[in-house]
Amino acid sequence: MHEKIEQYILELIRRSTPRRTAWNLEKVRAGQDVEWNYIDGCMLTALAAMTEITGDERYLDFVEQVADSFVGEDGTIDTFRPEKHALDDYNEGRILFPLYARSGKEKYRKAAEYLYRSLMEQPRTFEGNFWHKQIYPDQVWLDGTYMALPFLVTYERTFGRGDIRDAMDQLRVVRRRMRDPVTGLYYHGYDASRKAFWADPVTGLSRSFWLRAIGWYSLALADLIGLIPGDTEEWRELAETLRELMESVSAYADPETGMYWQVVDQPGREGNYPETSGSAMIACAMLKGARLGALESRFRDLGRGTFEGILNHHLKVRDGMIGLDHICLVAGLGPENNRRRDGTYEYYISEPVVSDDAKGAAPFVLCYTEIRRLEK
């Protein structure tokens, strides 16, 4: 298993350059160079974890090559546009911390400060949550919890005052507003203004439980649990939120593969399918949560079972190349001029399914690092 997975990761790196990464399929398909973005940020975070767990510097070396192609000596970041107010763009900032710890290069610290200052200017809802993007006013998406909050807390604990109140307050709003009390699952989006075409006019919620959105949120909770001291009320609150969610989502696991469905609460419905990226995210959250003591050991076993289901069913050799398949390329809500993205069941199952995109490959690699930690 180890050899096959590590060969897969190294093959992806070999097929990549800092501005043309093999795992950013949205750019590959368009024939475009990558910008500073969350897709590459996810994979680079996973590569940094690979060096941490294996001691093989090749992974972090590539991370540094990518960072150096964007980050100037003064800490400015090429292609990062703060005026977009896009939470997605803060995720890649997470790589700055391990690079600074390894090299001590001041440009990484300056870049983290630059991103932090920009994040503090992000528009917010009336309850204090970051807008997901400038083009999505007053909207909170589960995705954004992963894109911004681990970066925010890591910055605070590395270079700031260690203040986690902002992140905790935003997570409390997410739990209060976006959790379904019947299933225990979370809706993809919430519009605090109730104006978006996809939003329920009373609750502001979107219509469906999209797996990867829940996966992003699960990873955010697990990562934050790893960043906050375990003897605090905040840690216990995060642990309880993660336990509650993992208990709820595990009821929908596919009994054959241990994976989870693209629309979580509709297993077996026509068009629905066990989806790799969200399944890997749920598995990683379970494995990491159990390792950190936030979840019971049975969730470690559930997470491992999901990982093995992905490994056995979707990591395949084709034409001499290893590939990871059954990954939803992208999904979202709106904006106004894209009403196809309406949050319905029919919409989520209509999005393209691809292989090797980082939104699936990165959480799979992160799962693998958790499996390696179990073996130590």
Topology:
Elements: H1 2-14, H2 25-30, H3 38-54, H4 57-70, H5 96-103, H6 106-119, E1 139-141, H7 142-158, H8 165-178, E2 189-191, H9 211-227, H10 233-250, H11 276-291, H12 297-314, E3 315-318, E4 321-324, E5 327-328, H13 345-348, E6 353-354, H14 358-375
Antiparallel strand pairs: 1-2, 3-4, 5-6
Helix pairs in contact: 3-4, 3-14, 5-6, 6-7, 7-8, 7-9, 9-10, 9-11, 10-11, 11-12, 11-14
Task: Fill in the keyword field for this structure.
376 residues, 14 helices, two-stranded antiparallel ribbon, Glycosyltransferase, two-stranded antiparallel sheet, mainly alpha
The CATH architecture: Alpha/alpha barrel
Radius of gyration, in Å, reads 19 Å
Q: How helix-rich are the residues, as a percent range?
A: 40-55%
Helix vs. strand class: mainly alpha
Largest sheet: 2 strands, antiparallel
Strand sequence of the main sheet, in spatial order? 1-2
- Top CATH class: Mainly Alpha
Order of helices and strands: HHHHHHEHHEHHHHEEEHEH
Strand content: under 5%
Instruction: Tally the beta strands.
Output: 6
Number of domains: 1
CATH topology tier name: Glycosyltransferase
Calculate the terminal CA-CA distance, rounded to whole Å: 16 Å
Average pLDDT over all residues:
97
- Give the overall shape: globular
- The stretches of 5 or more residues where confidence is low (pLDDT under 50) are none
Q: How many separate helices?
A: 14
